[in-house]
Amino acid sequence: MKLVKQILKDHKGQAVVLFVLMIPVLWGGIGLAVDLGYVMVQKQKLQDSADFAVLSGAQKLPDASAAISIAAHVFNNNYGEAIPVENIIIDVNSLTIKLHHTDKVSLFFMPLLGVNEVSISAEAKAKSAVIYKPSALIPLSIPHTLPVVKGIEVTLWGQDKKILVILGLSTRLLMEKCKIKI
Fold it and tell me: Transmembrane segments in this chain: where (predicted)?
């Protein structure tokens, strides 16, 4: 009994015991933060690759084989892993392309706690459609022979002088160097 009282009164080495008990908790917190961050980045990369692939494939519809081919090629180039062709579904009647892919992500810290990998998946769908009756939209084309000199006036005309101009980088550059009247 005297020995138990002496052990309870003696606080030497208490920090070491607490530290040893907290190591798994600290390791789990660090591992969860690092591994969860990595999994989220990989999930976003997978989703971005799937989105880009179906958008690229939808441009080739209604040619199903070309759409599958370009979608698989774009996915492989962006995600870095070959996608099975069975994961790309084409509906020629509705002009839609759908891609579903599941992958496993290996973890860094969590294998020490028994979790080696996590499954991630992404699904993307795109539809090819025609713009119906565009109005007040005029393609803007300025010949390369037109000198880009400050002070040149370029007049654009459209139906009833109502024009929607979609500005791009080259158009913005041209507008800075030229005086454009609409």
Answer: 15-39
DSSP state letters, the chain: -HHHHHHHH--TTHHHHHHHHHHHHHHHHHHHHHHHHHHHHHHHHHHHHHHHHHHHHHTTTT-HHHHHHHHHHHHHHHHSSPPPGGGEEEETTTTEEEEEEEEEEE-SSGGGGT--EEEEEEEEEEE--PPPS--SB------TTS---TT-EEE---GGG--B----HHHHHHHHHSEEE-
Going by pLDDT thresholds of 50, 70 and 90, the confidence category of residue 113 is: confident
Residue-wise pLDDT tens digits, 43-69: 999 999 999 999 999 988 889 999 999
Q: What is the pTM of this model?
A: 0.62
* CB-based burial label for 153 (10 Å; 0-12, 13-18, 19+): exposed
